[in-house]
Amino acid sequence: MPRPLPRLPEPDSEPFWRATKNHELKYQQCNDCNTVVFYPRQHCTHCGSPNLSWKTSAGLGTVYTYSIVRQNRSPFFRDLVPYVLAYVDLDEGFRIMTNVVGTPRVEDVKCGMRVKVQWEDYEEVALPLFAPA
Amino acid sequence: MAYSTQRRDVAIVGIKEYPLRVVRPGTTANHIRIESARAALEEAGLTWQDVDGFYDAQGGGLGGPEYFGLKPNTIDTTSVGGSSFEFHAAHAVQAIREGKCRVALLTYGSTAHTDGRAIGTGGFGGFAGPATMGQNMTAPWGGATAANYALVKTRHMFQYGSKPEQFAEISVATRAHAMRNPEAVQAMKDLGYENIRELSIEDVLESRMIADPLHLLECCMVSDGGGAVVIASAEVARNTRKKPVWIIGTGQATKYRENAGDITVSAGAQSAPQAFGEAGIRPDEIDNAQMYGSFTITQLVCLEDLGFCKKGEGGDFVSGGRLRWDTPLKPAMGTDGSGYSSNHPGMHGIFLLLEATRQLRGESTSQVANARLAVAHGNGGDLGSTHSGSTIILARD
């Protein structure tokens, strides 16, 4: 059973996912009020403006919080346990849900840990995961 | 000082909690709703056709009235997760005050246990229906429900230094209440709980991790069940059989993942000031707080966000058995046994209204002495991402 992947076309998140194929982590910023917008959509969440620009993150951030998932009955994740679910705060000011990988033990993940994006390639997209920087 | 518009013109006049947590073969979710509605109306001394307000958290705005056989003037299908029933109570107050209806019926039924649904450890990991931005941005990383709540607990412990044994206090206090509630004890037997007895803090901490830092005994059960609540105007309430339990304050909010947002603050921080302001009372006047019993972290942050203690001090607040029914310190919490040890068929919110009402009538199996003021606070959805909160403040005469 493969990992569940984003389904395209989907108008709001499609530009984000298309860019992942080139290992680019994209986010949006409002041209009118400078608010960083994430998750992707077609309006500014602060002022409602439709004038957004796509930007590319350097892929560096900090673990805001995490959980070590020990039990999940869903296919794929049932076999992946234990794995680390996390929110990572990117340095550009947006927060992404992700998995933290690449620590010696899953218990080594901590809040505040510096991490860097790492890509897992699939046919249509690449999945952003994060590993210790 | 909060501006109070407190009125006592809408009351809960009839309640029923469906007694079983594992239904007999052939029982549907609708059967649970019908049986609960019948009993709640009968308790109030009202008839089936007295109902003119229909509240449905399960999407049955069209088919619901037909199945029940009702012709309501007010139909409300607000569906915001397990707190929907507190939203419905708030909306019923508005409808009754405006004269749009006189007798509002809230019902819930679920056969989640019998259906084998994995509420805490399933969900969120796959796709259903058309592609959405929300699913595309969350599903690939396997955020099972329990793990979503665990994200909040991890951050709370990191940010405020709250300790595992403090969260365990919540499981211990609510289990002590469950052991005094025969329906909860039966529920645990029917659901195959091992060693059905009062818990120690060590018991909780030694139970296995579901999603670190949440232990098994910090997670709600997956039961069958349901119930009904009848809310009516003061005019109707004057002639009902039980003493009315007045709804004196309501508040509603949603909250979600935000860039740079504080995940330890729930929607309750927005809904509670509305409710307490309307009621014109302070949290420290509340005798019993029926908080949404999905996971210990939910109840801890909701106690903080409703103002029972300062933000981040929930761990200290719940320590020393403070939440038990028989301590002199207010408030008691989860006096029916809560979602861990009494009832959680997927949506827990209706049971908060039921237990708060029992407390103010003097009918709880863990009755707080001379209870006068209660709060029922629902938290629906996923605490670590998109969720809803609704605060209902209740008073007896």
Notes on the structure:
- The complex is a heterodimer of chains A (133) and B (397).
- In chain A, strands 6-5-4-7-8 form a five-stranded antiparallel sheet, with no helix packed on it. A three-stranded antiparallel sheet of chain A has the order 2-1-3, with helices on one face.
- Chain A has helices at 14-20, 77-80, and strands at 25-30, 36-37, 52-57, 60-69, 83-90, 95-100, 114-121, 126-132.
- Chain A is mainly β and 133 residues long.
- Chain A is globular.
- The longest helix of chain A has 7 residues, at 14-20.
- Chain B has 397 residues and is an alpha/beta fold.
- Helix content of chain B is 35%, strand content 19%.
- Chain B is built from 15 helices and twelve strands.
- Chain B has a ten-stranded mixed sheet with strand order 3-2-4-7-1-8-12-11-9-10, with helices on both faces. A two-stranded antiparallel sheet of chain B has the order 5-6.
- In chain B, α7 (164-179) packs across α12 (296-305).
- The radius of gyration of chain B is 19 Å and the shape is globular.
- At the A-B interface, β4, β5 and β6 of A face α5, α6 and β5 of B.
- β4 (60-69) of chain A pairs antiparallel with β5 (209-212) of chain B, so a sheet runs across the interface.
